[in-house]
Amino acid sequence: MSGAGHLLPPEWLTRLERLSLGARTRVAGTLQGKRRSRRLGSSLEFADYRLYAPGDDVRRFDWGVYSRTGKAFVRQFMDEQELMVSIYVDCSASMNARTSTSSFDSSTSSGTPVSGGMDSGGAKWMLARQLAASIGYMALSSYDRLQVACYSRTLDSRLPILRGKGAAHRLFAHLQQTPTGGDGSLAAALSVPGALPRLSGMTWIFSDFWLEGGEEELSRSLSLLSGAGQETVLVHVLSREELEPRLSGDLRLVDSESLTGKEVAVTGRVLDAYREELENYRQMLARVCAERGVTYVLIPADMPLQEAVFGILAGAGLVKG
Predict the structure, then answer these.
(1) Which helix (H) or strand (E) holds 171?
(2) 320 vs 290: CA distance, rounded Å
(3) Residue among 171, 228, 224 at smallest CA distance from 201
(4) Which residues make Cβ contacts (< 8 Å) with residue 60, sequence separation at least 6?
(5) Which of 8, 223, 224, 265 has the most C-beta neighbours closer than 10 Å?
(6) CA 316 from chain center: how many Å?
(7) Quick one: pLDDT at residue 30?
(8) Which tens digit of pLDDT belongs to each residue from 30-73?
(9) What is the CB neighbour count within 10 angstroms for residue 321?
């Protein structure tokens, strides 16, 4: 498909069309789709028999059962409905920071990352958009409803509801053209009027989850989504430099969002403290998600897209072949 551009290779789209999203619940939508709802309806997938009642569709009358038992039964089928899929992509400055590492500023209580140095940059932003595009294309290929928004402290850009593979070029173009910048707050963005999905469904959030408000902000965000009837997935994308920093010496680390700096003498002890804080932070994210029935996965930004989808996401039951 010509709309994919550099974001997704064309051959990748064919593979995505054979996948579907692993929503845990059946969905009662408003249009015909490829996903089971709780209702019985008119798909080709048989569900059960029940006794015939006057007014039933005679086309569902099972003459084979009648000839064997002398009782009038009609066949029932599963009703296939759409899933409402919502995607939120973090477009704050930290997602595209061209830095060699991130660290925790001990002068703040929230664990805000500060960064310094230069490397190839943009790996988090690229993978987050590739993953969002892949999940979105799976939804469109399954005739599910899809809405996409990029956020910082508000919804910086948003697409109207899309449906069908013909709308994929709008998805890809939107993700390609959205810039990054500013500081981010998931809770603030979700609190904007109209930011939450209007229909129950499945919500995916792609972010580095450097939350200024820490656990309190995460809990508030998940509460907002739960109240909107969402089955939520948090995809935590961190650069290799954030996961395994390789710094030494006297450095000035600059926060990529607030642009405030701090002089740090980076030693082995400092790096050990960073790794411990990072692990505690990741465990907090995982714990809060587990307590609320939210799926949390961590994906390094240097992981190949194929491994991220077929390894991490498929392994967590989030996508199915």
Answers:
(1) helix 168-177
(2) 21
(3) 228
(4) 74, 75, 76
(5) 8
(6) 13
(7) 45
(8) 444 454 444 444 444 555 666 777 766 777 778 888 888 888 88
(9) 8
Reading phi first (left if > 0) and then psi (alpha if -120 to 50, else beta), residue 131 is in: alpha
Burial degree of 54 (CB within 10 A; 0-12, 13-18, 19+):
exposed
Q: What is the pLDDT of residue 261?
A: 66
Q: Which DSSP string corresponds to 29-78?
A: -SSEEEEEEEEEEEEEEEEEEEE--TTS-GGGB-HHHHHHHS--EEEEEE
What is the CA angle 254-259-260, rounded to 5? 70
- The tally of CA atoms less than 13 A away on the side-chain side of residue 269 is 2
For residue 130, count CB atoms less than 10 angstroms from its CB and return exposed for 0-12, middle for 13-18, buried for 19 or more.
buried
Q: Which amino acid is at 306?
A: Q
Q: Are the CB atoms for 225 and 203 separated by under 8 Å?
A: yes
